[in-house]
Write a structure and sequence with these properties.
The chain is α/β, with parallel strands linked by helices and about 350 residues long. The chain is built from ten helices and 14 strands. Strands 2-10-9-8-5-3-4 form a seven-stranded mixed sheet, sandwiched between helices. The chain binds 4'-deoxy-4'-aminopyridoxal-5'-phosphate.
Length: about 350
């Protein structure tokens, strides 16, 4: 086995893969796999209901919310959020802390008016804005933020208080990695392929009162209301992806839930940041220390040749997926929920050794 630092699709919990393997050919004695069953079967309906219930239980939420399982990725949500909730004449506010937030604004602008309430672009996306730097518009239709910017490795240490407007968050790369007050959010979306499952399904947590405000004059398949009314079974869902997502949420629950995840994730990230900090400037972290991501640790080496050598030698030593995103280069270690702590210890030791040889 390798230590898998991929940014997404990413490492999955070993017990989840083993269970899926054991159940693959004969799901609950039905003589066929879950892949081959109707999405209207009672078996799949149980999986769908379990995934929604586990999602809400992990976040401590009740009947005010629905969890929807959609397709089109988080990128699809960049479009669906404004399509549903940004009517003509209104403005949506976006707090931009990295490349994904920028993409979300761009999509909103194809639909209506979007106002950038704060942006870290001029500083190279190294931190999150202080409360006084966020300039919300008069009556925003909603306020959107990205809780963890996967490419830059910038994460809100605490999610900000932003007043009364519906709060929308892209939590693709840190959902279920730490406890937070989900009841402050009207809508949270996350591509599953980092912290909670495989590619192919996007989880959307949405407050009932927001669903009701969604536009009714857009195609049914683009309306959150359609998915809510049909419990994500309006059309054929990605059944195997939802099944794996449900198993991943079960695994997180068994581990002790979000508090246990947060404790482990903090320890894991600390191993890698410590190797950066003791390197005397050889490894240079991208994020300001206060906004360092616990999920994606991004750093540079003195030059690109050394970065290539680092990634190649790490790979030879069994540590894969460490090249930075193609848009910014450098090194990125993604440390999602399912990555074992040993992987982070191994990476930190490798970094020390690489510095000793090349520093
Ligand atoms: N938002 C964030 C924070 C992401 O990390 C990603 C994917 N890396 C996306 C959005 C886009 O997700 P998808 O590929 O599922 O559309």
């Amino acid at each position: 086995m390798v230590h898998n630092f991929n940014a997404g699709p990413a490492v999955l919990p070993r017990p989840v893969l083993e269970r899926a393997q054991a159940e693959l050919l004969d799901y609950q004695g039905r003589g066929m796999s879950i892949l081959e069953m109707s999405h209207r079967s009672k078996e799949y309906e149980a999986i769908n209901a379990s995934a929604e219930a586990r999602f809400k239980a992990l976040l401590g939420l009740g009947d005010d919310y629905r969890v929807l399982f959609m397709q089109g990725g988080a990128s699809g949500q960049f479009a669906l959020v404004p399509l549903n909730f940004l009517p003509a004449g209104a403005t949506a506010d976006y707090i931009v802390t990295g490349v994904w937030g920028e993409k979300a604004v761009e999509e909103a602008r194809t639909v209506g008016q979007a106002h950038v309430a704060a942006s870290g672009a001029s500083g190279g996306f190294r931190g999150v804005p202080a409360p006084g730097e966020i300039r919300l518009s008069e009556r925003p239709a909603y306020v959107h933020l990205t809780s963890n910017e996967t490419i830059q490795g910038v994460q809100w240490p605490e999610l900000p208080e932003l007043g009364d407007a519906p709060l929308v968050a892209d939590m693709s790369s840190d959902i279920m990695s730490r406890p937070f007050d989900a009841s402050r959010f009207a809508l949270i979306y996350a591509g599953a392929q980092k912290n909670i499952g495989p590619a192919g399904v996007t989880a959307v947590l949405i407050r009932h009162s927001l669903i009701e405000r969604g536009r009714a004059d857009i195609p049914a398949v683009l309306r959150y209301g359609t998915f809510a009314k049909n419990s994500s079974l309006y059309n054929t869902p990605p059944v195997f992806a939802v099944y794996l997502l449900d198993l991943c949420l079960g695994w997180i629950t068994e581990q002790g839930g979000l508090a246990a995840m947060a404790e482990r994730n903090a320890r894991k990230a600390a191993h890698v940041y410590a190797a950066i900090d003791r390197s005397g400037g050889f490894f240079r972290g991208h994020a300001e220390p206060a906004a360092r991501s616990q999920m994606n640790v991004t750093f540079r080496l003195p030059d690109e040749a050394l970065e290539r050598q680092f990634v190649a030698e790490a790979q030879a030593a069994g540590m894969v997926g460490l090249a930075g995103h193609r848009s910014i280069g450098g090194v990125r270690a993604s440390l999602y929920n399912a990555l074992p702590e040993e992987a982070c210890l191994a990476l930190a030791a490798f970094m020390d050794e690489f510095l000793r040889k090349n520093g």
